């Protein structure tokens, strides 16, 4: 079995994150799950920073015309979808639902 590049734990083919340490595994970025939708890139960066503490990679995807609206107003009209690797979804949800601060 392939090994985690971070902690060397063996993992099953197809895993998006290491079952031992939660690190993102190479070549397995295709299974993504929608975590939440935020109003601005600033909000996304806050979530991204929280998730980074758990080695969960976060990806943002502007909704339709979001980039265009952001240029005009600084925020998007439609929001930004935040995606995480599907196996890390439940952990990511608990991370972002922690009390702020
Ligand atoms: Zn690992």
What is the spatial order of strands in the main beta sheet?
Answer: 1-3-2
What is the CA-based Rg, rounded? 15 Å
And the CATH topology of the domain at 32-96?
Answer: Alpha-Beta Plaits
Q: What are the segments in which pLDDT stays under 50 over at least 5 consecutive residues? A: 65-71
Which small-molecule ligands are present, each listed once? zinc ion
Q: Mean pLDDT score, rounded?
A: 80
CATH architecture assignment name of the domain at 32-96: 2-Layer Sandwich
Q: What is the H/E order? A: EHEHEH
Helix content: 25-40%
Distance between the termini: 39 Å
Q: What features would you describe in this structure?
A:
About 30% of the residues lie in helices and about 15% in strands. The protein has about 100 residues and is α+β, with helices and mostly antiparallel strands. It has a domain at about 30-95: 2-Layer Sandwich (Alpha-Beta Plaits). The longest helix has 12 residues, at about 40-50. The termini are far apart.
In short:
By secondary structure, this protein is of the alpha+beta class. The chain has three helices and three strands.
Write the layout of secondary structure elements.
Elements: E1 32-38, H1 41-52, E2 59-62, H2 66-73, E3 80-85, H3 89-96
Bound molecules: zinc ion.
Quick tags:
101 residues; alpha+beta; Alpha-Beta Plaits; 3 strands; binds zinc ion
């Amino acid at each position: 079995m392939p090994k985690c590049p971070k902690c060397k734990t063996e993992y099953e083919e197809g895993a998006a994150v290491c079952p031992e340490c939660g690190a993102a595994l190479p070549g397995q970025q295709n299974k993504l799950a929608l975590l939440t939708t935020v109003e601005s890139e600033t909000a996304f960066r806050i979530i991204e920073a929280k998730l980074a503490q758990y080695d969960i990679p976060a990806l943002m995807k502007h909704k339709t015309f979001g980039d265009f609206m952001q240029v005009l107003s600084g925020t998007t009209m439609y929001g930004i979808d935040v995606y995480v690797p599907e196996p890390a979804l439940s952990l990511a949800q608990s991370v972002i639902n922690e009390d702020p601060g």
